[in-house]
């Protein structure tokens, strides 16, 4: 593909012809043509007037270009000399004038030019890669100008405005002395194409033809990228590879990958008219140093022309992403030696982006995708989808995708709608969280404010201290006030806390371990605060302590709360002791009246067995009660009840109702009338007690059973192996109203019938309805008992208690009556 070169670059890219000028690069002043003087404008032999004018203009343009190149070279040299003067000023304490004279004197004594001496001084002071290459070359070849050439090239390349000027500086200062004729600097693109970012020594038309090299063209620069190493060719023609200047410069070629930090961003291609120079180790180091300088230029400067390749497209993409309200990531692929994407650099995040794990934006931008979200590498995860979109160009959309990451070893996940699309060499990932985690993460900043947590970070190397507004407020400082170093923590604390602060600082700064402590802060306005500080060290290379960071929290409210709690702790312990004593008395009272287990009774042809199961927890002593007694009338009283509540009040209420019912039953009244009287007793003679009860009277001669209930569960009748509820009769619970009427039912019992009366603790469950629990009880009651007659009734009661599905931890009372 051919790109049109902007007209304003034509003059800059045309190679300057050799004019035979002196070393300064310009002819003597007397030989310069004077405009307006005809005698100083030579006419070309045999040419017309028009041809003479064109020739004169061409000569003027060439001369001005030569002067411009020479001025640039002199400026580069002056920059190097000024850098050396600065070293003398800094190291020896000279003034600017003294440093200039000293530099000239030293140059004269060492028989070097001022420029060469300046390069040596910079090499000795910097001790960088260029200085190392220069020392190696001097040791191997004894040729000291190499340091000057590389340092001059560095100065020119750093002062260059764009990569085109960088290429010219590299050719003029470093490569021409090595016999090179031209140089090209290629930028490597994400789609595996190459862009000519800058060149020198080629014709203008040739450079425009090679402005863009599509993927797959096997040029020397492409081969160097594939190999990720310098690639040389003794003859470009013999190698048969296409490249810039292939017709005019057919000699040796050397392509060196240019990269920084393990990431290759381009290639520098050096061209010789003849064979390659002998590739010594020192010479290879020079080329690698130049490639590193070119990589710096590719990272920080635009290619030749007004706009870098794809820069407009990238700017438009970032502008579009910037306006999106949803969180958005712009990813740039990172390729391996085989030009396959291994990861994606998070190049940009829009203002709406909030990390769902609550991490700051600075921790996400500039990181790689698998560094920020390592769990994205799971099969079918985000990384796989991004890779597919980059390879195929097909957009990906998912209404619900799980995103996960690891924060301090803890997995945090969220669900989001994800849109992934490719835009040129970049991939855009749009996230719309479904559960509001982005909004919640955004509220973490407000949580710090509400929790009065102030964050800080202190650079121990530079002394720079960063505090947030909350921390300034904790110390009573205004916004913009100077923060206080953590080493001065004791100056603002109560004297009694000095030792605790000393241990905190020793652990943090000397042992370099995370530490925390609490102290009393003394503010300038006289207000005292109880503060807890937590901090951790930041360790750099070679185990150097670089900084400390952490947080202060105002725990004054917590402190005074603890003081108040401590003041009432004794009173609370005394109250707990009293409560335990009341529970113990209630349990003793309950057991005295109704032992947990009781043997069977024979009452006028009835066999009666009772089972009582108290609550598992002592403080839940309940009010369940039962009674089975022969009355003076010859009837048998059977009753069971449940007083609402727990504790000693419920136990005493149970005693009162049980005794009152037994006394009322001696009158000979029926069960409905007995419950009506017992309701009045409950309403008037007890302190806000309510209860449920079922009361039955059995007449032995007729085997007639009459019964009534007050809000209680109906009894069960087991006849011929089938269990059923007795017919429902109406009746409100005891104590609810003053006067109440109760219905009454009756059934004639048969020999072998079994009647079961129980409290709700036998069947109640929190996860099912009462009817479902009753159905389960009927099924359990029909289970055959033991074959022995005497053990059959008790076995059934034990079976019902053992397989009860109740889960309310309430006490339970169960009466079984069998007609003999």
From TrEMBL:
PROSITE patterns tied to this protein: ANTAR (PS50921)
SMART domains: ANTAR, PP2C_SIG
Annotated stretches, region: Disordered: 1-53
Keyword field: Hydrolase, Kinase, Transcription, Transcription regulation, Transferase
Bias type Basic and acidic residues, positions: 1-12
Family matches, as SUPFAM superfamilies: CheY-like, GAF domain-like, PP2C-like, PYP-like sensor domain (PAS domain)
Residues annotated as domain ANTAR: 61-122
Annotated signal peptide: none
PANTHER family given in the database record: STAGE II SPORULATION PROTEIN E (PTHR43156:SF2), STAGE II SPORULATION PROTEIN E-RELATED (PTHR43156)
Protein name, as recorded: SpoIIE family protein phosphatase
């Amino acid at each position: 593909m051919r790109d049109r070169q902007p007209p304003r670059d034509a003059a800059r890219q045309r190679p300057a012809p050799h004019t035979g000028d002196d070393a300064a690069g310009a002819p003597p002043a007397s030989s310069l043509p004077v405009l307006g003087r005809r005698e100083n404008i030579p006419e070309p032999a045999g040419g017309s007037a028009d041809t003479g004018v064109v020739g004169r203009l061409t000569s003027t343009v060439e001369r001005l270009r030569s002067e411009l190149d020479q001025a640039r070279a002199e400026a580069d040299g002056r920059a190097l000399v000024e850098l050396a003067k600065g070293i003398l000023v800094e190291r020896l304490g000279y003034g600017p004038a003294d440093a200039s004279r000293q530099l000239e004197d030293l140059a004269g004594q060492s028989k070097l030019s001022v420029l060469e001496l300046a390069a040596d001084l910079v090499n000795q002071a910097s001790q960088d890669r260029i200085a190392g290459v220069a020392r190696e070359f001097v040791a191997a070849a004894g040729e000291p100008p190499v340091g000057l050439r590389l340092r001059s090239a560095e100065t020119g390349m750093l002062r260059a405005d764009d990569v085109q000027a960088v290429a010219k500086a590299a050719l003029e200062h470093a490569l021409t002395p090595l016999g090179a004729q031209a140089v090209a600097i290629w930028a490597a693109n994400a789609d595996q194409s190459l862009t000519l970012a800058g060149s020198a020594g080629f014709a203008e038309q040739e450079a425009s033809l090679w402005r863009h090299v599509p993927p797959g063209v096997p040029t020397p620069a492409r081969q160097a990228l594939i190999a990720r190493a310098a690639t040389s060719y003794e003859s470009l023609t013999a190698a048969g590879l296409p490249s810039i200047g292939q017709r005019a410069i057919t000699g040796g070629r050397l392509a060196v990958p240019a990269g920084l930090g393990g990431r290759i961003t381009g290639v520098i291609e050096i061209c010789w008219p003849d064979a390659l120079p002998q590739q010594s180790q020192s010479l290879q180091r020079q080329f690698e140093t130049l490639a590193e300088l070119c990589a710096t230029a590719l990272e920080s400067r635009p290619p030749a022309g007004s706009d870098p390749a794809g820069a407009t497209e990238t700017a438009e993409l970032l502008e579009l992403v910037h306006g999106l309200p949803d969180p958005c990531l712009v990813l740039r692929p990172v390729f391996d030696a085989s030009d396959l994407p291994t990861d994606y650099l998070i190049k940009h995040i829009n203002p709406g982006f909030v990390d769902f794990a609550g991490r700051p934006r600075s921790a996400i931008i500039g990181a790689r995708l698998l560094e920020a979200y390592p769990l994205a590498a799971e099969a079918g995860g985000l990384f796989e989808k991004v890779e597919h979109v980059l390879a195929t160009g097909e957009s990906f959309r998912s209404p619900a995708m799980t995103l996960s990451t690891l924060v301090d070893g803890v997995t945090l996940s969220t669900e989001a709608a994800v849109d992934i699309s490719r835009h040129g060499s970049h991939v855009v990932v749009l996230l719309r969280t479904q559960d509001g985690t982005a909004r919640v993460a955004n509220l973490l900043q407000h949580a710090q404010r509400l929790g009065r947590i102030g964050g800080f970070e202190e650079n121990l190397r530079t002394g720079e201290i960063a505090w947030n507004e909350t921390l300034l407020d904790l110390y009573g400082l205004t916004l913009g006030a100077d923060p206080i170093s953590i080493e001065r923590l004791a100056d603002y604390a109560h004297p009694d806390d000095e030792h605790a602060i000393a241990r905190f600082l020793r652990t943090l700064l000397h042992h370099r371990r995370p530490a925390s402590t609490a102290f009393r802060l003394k503010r300038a306005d006289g207000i005292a605060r109880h503060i807890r500080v937590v901090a951790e060290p930041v360790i750099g290379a070679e185990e150097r302590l670089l900084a400390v960071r952490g947080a202060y929290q105002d725990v004054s409210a917590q402190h005074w709360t603890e003081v108040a709690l401590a003041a009432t702790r004794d009173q609370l312990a005394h109250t707990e002791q009293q409560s335990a004593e009341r529970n113990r008395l209630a349990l003793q009272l309950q057991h005295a009246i109704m032992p947990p287990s009781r043997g069977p009774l024979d009452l006028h042809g009835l066999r009666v067995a009772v089972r009582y199961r108290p609550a598992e927890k002592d403080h839940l002593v309940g009010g369940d009660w039962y009674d089975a007694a022969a009355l003076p009338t010859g009837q048998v009283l059977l009753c069971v009840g449940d007083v609402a509540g727990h504790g000693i009040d419920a136990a005493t209420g149970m005693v009162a109702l049980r005794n009152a019912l037994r006394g009322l039953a001696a009158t000979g009244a029926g069960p409905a009338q007995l419950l009506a009287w017992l309701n009045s007793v409950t309403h008037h003679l007890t302190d806000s007690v309510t209860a449920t009860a079922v009361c039955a009277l059995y007449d032995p001669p007729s085997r007639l059973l009459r019964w009534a209930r007050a809000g209680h569960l109906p009894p069960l009748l087991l006849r011929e192996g089938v269990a059923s509820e007795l017919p429902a009769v109406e009746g409100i619970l005891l104590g609810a109203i003053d006067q109440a009427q109760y219905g009454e039912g009756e059934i004639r019992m048969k020999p072998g019938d079994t009647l079961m009366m129980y409290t709700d603790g036998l069947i109640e469950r929190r996860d099912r309805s009462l009817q479902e629990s009753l159905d389960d009880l009927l099924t359990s009651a029909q289970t055959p008992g033991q074959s022995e007659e005497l053990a059959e009734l008790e076995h059934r009661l034990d079976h019902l208690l053992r397989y009860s599905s109740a889960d309310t931890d309430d006490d339970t009372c169960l009466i079984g009556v069998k007609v003999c």
